[in-house]
Write a structure and sequence with these properties.
Cytidine Deaminase, domain 2; eight-stranded mixed beta sheet; six-stranded antiparallel beta sheet; globular; JAMM/MPN+_dom; metalloprotease; protease; RAMA
Length: about 500
């Protein structure tokens, strides 16, 4: 490995990748307080409410002209303390609605001019990769989404607009899909499994959903499940396909081929990877160091290097990657792969993961004519479908599509690995664990280890059981691990 440059693709991988959709645009009051982030006003860029400009006399009413102030003046909403809320990835935010239509976030007292500005700010605190907040579709007023109030206002004041058009969600299709994924994640974080939902008694009528405002007709059931697809069902690339679609891996035997390289992996690698994955409700990434023996065609994975950075945080990621590159050099290791987590989903690659892995394989290959493999590991710590308390950690490698079908996706292949139990935990591992605990301490997406994972076990119990399956032969450092667990319990 001649330079650290190949470390960069990982920053874009994962389920919670940045949105492609633009932020919602709203008509804003010109008196925006200095220093408060907000959505763009409709005074520029041609985004006014009609031909006459923003709010011009006789201009056609549009969704973008309907603000909280408009709804307050028309008595659709009433100002009040704590009447607005956002629930995102296990974190709840509460806001006060002011008589002038502004929002005061209770936790900090910050003032925002629109639902979009507030939602984007809050969601970025939990997931810095977020670009938009889907404000009107994710902020609730007294338990009901604001876009419903906007739709009702339009029906009353714009009689020539068909009801169906007025009822359309202000979110784009991409944002709508993102909201579905957010809600699925929220249910998992709240411990709601598919079985639990099936066991719930109907709250109203047998055919009436308990929360009708969260169930768009004809879309919810199919999108909520996120069922993995088989590779053979994908076909050619389609820009409309969700990049977070999970894909089943294919065995080499199924296509009458042999695995082109052997893999041996250290138990310490899986131990640290599993620990890292358990700490947060968000995705994590890291790198794999090891050696490639071209004569025996053996890839030996000896060390995990966690990235103590957030997806989307380019500056911190670059610093971490340089640090990891130097660590590889000092240990005489090569970069041989990467890992990341799907916290609440199966340990299967998404379409985006497949593309990142293929890019990685090509970049690690460089100008060399000889074959050099690159391994990807996926960890699923909190997926409710996992048997028992252990995380599922699965390797995959991507086979290029057939030459006659260059526009197809790469084929995610299941990789067989030999597990090598280490003699003991090294000081490096303990040091990395403490650095990770310090990094996530106080974060809103830190797992609360003292809370219940199931009826019988806390999240800390689950972590201990999962790590026990990857412990070295000599467990003399168990007292040190207990200190780490104690810090986790107190810090969360």
């Amino acid at each position: 490995m001649a330079a650290p440059e190949p470390l960069s693709p990982v920053g874009g991988a994962g389920e919670e990748a940045p949105d492609e959709d633009e932020d919602e645009v709203e008509a804003e009051d010109p008196e925006r307080p200095a220093g408060v982030s907000g959505a763009r006003s409709c005074g520029g860029g041609g985004s006014g409410a009609g031909a006459g400009g923003c709010g011009a006399p006789g201009a056609a009413l549009t969704r973008r002209a309907v603000t909280l102030r408009v709804l307050l003046k028309d008595a659709q909403l009433e100002p009040g303390a704590g009447v607005l809320s956002i629930y995102y990835l296990g974190k709840k935010f509460v806001g006060d609605l002011q008589p002038d239509g502004r929002i005061v976030w209770q936790e900090t007292g910050q003032v925002f001019n629109s639902p979009s500005a507030w939602a984007t700010h809050c969601k970025k605190l939990v997931n810095p990769a977020k670009k938009s907040g889907c404000g009107w579709a994710s902020v609730k007023y007294k338990g009901q989404k604001l876009d419903k109030y906007k739709a009702a206002w339009l029906r009353r004041h714009q009689l020539h607009v068909p009801a169906a058009a007025a009822d359309e969600s202000p979110a784009s299709e991409g944002e709508e899909e993102e909201l579905l994924m957010e809600e699925e994640e929220e249910e998992v974080l709240a411990g709601v499994s598919a079985e639990d939902k099936n066991r719930r008694p109907p709250a109203k009528g047998a055919s009436e959903p308990a929360h009708p405002e969260t169930t768009p007709p004809g879309k919810r059931v199919e999108n909520k499940m996120r069922v993995p697809v088989r590779y053979c069902m994908l076909g050619s690339r389609d820009s409309a396909r969700n990049p977070h679609t999970l894909v089943e891996v294919t065995s080499f035997a199924a296509i009458n081929k042999f695995q082109p390289f052997n893999v041996a992996i250290s138990s310490n690698v899986l131990f640290l990877l599993d620990f890292h994955s358990h700490l947060t409700r968000s995705e994590i990434v890291g790198y794999l160091g090891g050696r490639w023996d071209i004569n025996s065609q053996m890839l030996t994975v000896l060390r995990a290097f966690p990235c103590r950075s957030r997806l989307g945080d380019a500056d911190t990621a670059a610093t971490m990657e340089e640090e990891i590159y130097q660590s590889l050099l000092l240990r005489g290791l090569s970069l041989v792969g990467w890992y990341h987590s799907h916290p609440h989903s199966p340990e299967l690659p998404s379409l985006q993961d497949i593309d990142v892995q293929m890019d990685y394989q090509l970049r690690l290959q460089g100008s060399s004519n000889g074959f050099q493999p690159c391994l990807a590991l996926l960890c699923s710590p909190y997926y409710s479908g996992n048997p028992g308390l252990e995380s599922k950690i699965s390797p995959f490698w991507v086979m290029p599509p057939p030459e006659q079908r260059p526009s197809d996706y790469g084929i995610p292949m299941d990789v067989e690995m030999a597990y090598v139990q280490d003699s003991f935990l090294t000081n490096d591992i303990i040091h990395e664990m403490m650095l990770l605990v310090e990094f996530y301490k106080g974060a809103p997406d830190l797992v609360r280890f003292q809370e219940s994972w199931s009826q019988e076990h806390t999240y800390l119990d689950k972590l201990k059981v999962s790590l026990a399956s990857r412990m070295p032969k000599d467990q003399g450092l168990c007292h040190v691990l207990e200190q780490v667990y104690s810090i986790l319990k107190q810090g969360s």
